[in-house]
Amino acid sequence: MAAESEPEGTINININSPCINLEKLPHLTDYLPTLKTYTNPLQHNPFFLPSDGFYVTPTDIVLRHIAYDISSSSSSASPHLAYLRAGPRKQIFFDPTDSTRAAIVNCGGLCPGLNTVIRELVVGLWDLYGLRHIYGIQAGYRGFYSTDMAPLQLNPKMVHGWHKTGGTLLQTSRGGFHLQNIVDAIQHNGFNQVYIIGGDGSMRGAVKIFDEIRRRKLNIGVVGIPKTVDNDVGIIDRSFGFQTAVEMAQQAINAAHVEAESAVNGIGLVKLMGRSTGHIALHATLSSRDVDCCLIPENKFYLEGKGGLFEFLGHRLKENGHAVVVVAEGAGQDMIPRTDAQKEEKDESGNPVFLDVGSWLKTELKKWWDRDHPNELFTVKYIDPTYMIRAVPANATDNLYCTLLAHSAIHGIMAGYTGFVCGPINGNYAYIPLVEVAQAKNEVNTRDHKWAWVRSVTSQPDFEKT
């Protein structure tokens, strides 16, 4: 493929508008200004036939916020934050027919859609841009430098049916982040593109990898694809796999409802994923309508006394004869007794080890009933579907989402952008600086309409002591 002599225009332009604050996106030319450009091979792809508007330009942007109160002075005084829109560029900065080598790694826990993202990265790189050197890094970050796990060469035929399978066929692990070893291995293997799929810890690691590559002035693009079933990644609309997780949570809630309804004074207790945020619990509650109380990390609750959980469940059992409680795994952790050693315990990713709030709550419910209602029938059925939820294949909606994420990542990195994350903002796919996503959190706002909707559906107390 013939190289062009000059780059096409300025990569990060300054949009001349006092109303728009365009977030600058890192680009390889920031520290390698003499890089050659190439015509995008999509220009000659018979299946695309690019027409006017097909290629994204440096002036195509996506606004961070689209809802404003126009009567407020602050809405007009501050410029609107914007990001570059994702999509193919007419000029690219890698020669796909020559020496470009791509590495794909996934880190941390499982999530529906992992295999779909990997599959679509391979197929997209191969079919859209003609790459023939695509490698999967096995077992997370440590797979870059481990002598026991060589990079696995991937092609479309090999990954053809991966999207129908849960988990990750590249395997994964937590921890293993050793910056110098990882970047040395990337450089030694001649990788020019690195696709990192992972949660907030993995994204923080990706920032360090990007910074070290930039410090060494290497012609290597780095892109992060945020993966967390909890949906706790900030800025983007949602994480891939989240909708599948909510759908699977319905099965557990339905089972808990049947168990509770079939017993005298029966309580169905379901623990769902959500270490620091309660999005799965919230959305599953709204989708189910069989839930009587939803407990999430963002909303502190208490057990005893007026307005407490026991009082509420006592009324609900008296009225209906049964109740269903959904609790996110991170809720109530400050109430669970633990030893000094347990307080200091960390997992391989450096996160505090949580105790089982479901088992603790089940025990407390039984103690409460035995104390206040002796000799009365009472049953608690505890269901923990955690690993069932995260290990299933993605549903149709998440599969499509994973495809768009993968293709957006490919288009961005081929265009020379680096140190970025791709994701939908207000329904439009955009490129966001990696460091922003690594720092942002998406917590449930218990003061907004959605949480009010949960409380109106469940009639649960606000757990605010007066």
Automatic annotation (TrEMBL):
Q: Indicate which residues the UniProt annotation says bind substrate.
A: T228, V229, D230, M273, G274, R275, E329, Y387, M388, I389, R390
* Residue numbers annotated as active site: D230 (proton acceptor)
**Is Metal-binding among this UniProt entry's keywords?**
yes
Record pathway:
Carbohydrate degradation; glycolysis; D-glyceraldehyde 3-phosphate and glycerone phosphate from D-glucose: step 3/4
Residues given in the record as ATP binding sites: G109, R174, G175, G199, D200, G201, S202
**What highest taxon heads this organism's lineage?**
Eukaryota
According to its UniProt record, which reaction does this protein catalyse? beta-D-fructose 6-phosphate + ATP = beta-D-fructose 1,6-bisphosphate + ADP + H(+)
The function of this protein is:
Catalyzes the phosphorylation of D-fructose 6-phosphate to fructose 1,6-bisphosphate by ATP, the first committing step of glycolysis.
Q: Which family does it belong to?
A: Belongs to the phosphofructokinase type A (PFKA) family. PPi-dependent PFK group II subfamily. Atypical ATP-dependent clade 'X' sub-subfamily.
Q: What is this protein called?
A: ATP-dependent 6-phosphofructokinase
Q: Which organism is it from?
A: Acer negundo
